[in-house]
Structures are given as C-alpha cells and as structure tokens.
Amino acid sequence: MARRRTLSATTFRRGINLWPPFLFAGIKVLAVDDAFRTAKVRLRLGRLNRNWVGTHFGGSIFSMTDPFWMLLVMQNLGPGYYVWDSAAEIEFVSPGRGDVFAEFVLTDDRLAEIRELTADGSKALVWFDTEVLASDGSVVARVRKQVYVRPKPEQAKSEQAGQAEPVGTAV
Asked: pTM value?
C-alpha cells in the first residue's frame, strides 16, 4: 500500500544536514532513498569532535546513529503508529581516527515483523543493530537501538477488523 509522505527524502536529508547537532558535530547524511528504507551517514574527524586522545568523541559516534531507526520505521509505518526511541547501547570496538560511516537498511521482513507484533494493538519493542565502520571497513563501534512501536487506537481497530484505512484518507 502506498503511503503519503509529508517530506521527500531529499528535503529530509538536506534539512537534517543543517540540524545543529549534526552540522556542528561533523555528521552528514549522505543518502536517504525515496522509500525511506536506507540511510547512509558519515562522521568526519575534526577539531570540534576529537576527544582528548585525538580520536572520535564517543558521543559524536553515537549521535550519528541516533535518530535513523526511529525515523525509517516511522516513515514506513505511517501516521497510524506511535514510534519512539526506547533504549540504546553502544560498544566501542576500535578508535576512530578518520571518517566513519553507518548504514541503516530497513527490510520488508522487519516491517512485517513489527506489523505482526502490533496487529492486536499492543506495543512492540524492536531492536536494530548498526555497525559504525572506518574507511577501511574495520568496525569502530556497534550500536543497538530499541524502537517502541504501537498502533494508534484507530489503526488497531481497523487492522483487527481486517480493513486498514489507506494512509492519508479521511474517515
């Protein structure tokens, strides 16, 4: 089912790249596909995000991964669901001494899993894993994000009846 979006992927990418927490930390969203299924992000090592020993500040590494799972899930499920970040974990594997990258890929299987877990109107707490990689492909950090998803009451009723309203239609 096609979903109406209030924002194009290009407008989203341009806007988030001007968002001060990303702009001043050296974080740049390189790509977001039109279906909001993938996002690619880069963090440059610079004077403003270097830690005491000259490597990436851990908070910047975490920030580069922070909003993406929630935003991708939200854009794909549409306005009939509440979607929030719920928890996060980060494991620092090796020092980041240059540009680092993260890629987020939301699959059909994960979306189907979320819809199935929430079909009766209950919440789902879904974990997503992301590796932050150096330019040579080595792992700098592993980030886990837990996303809370719950259908809004009107969405849950229509799904239980087996007739979900198309997104963007008036009731």
From this structure: 0.83
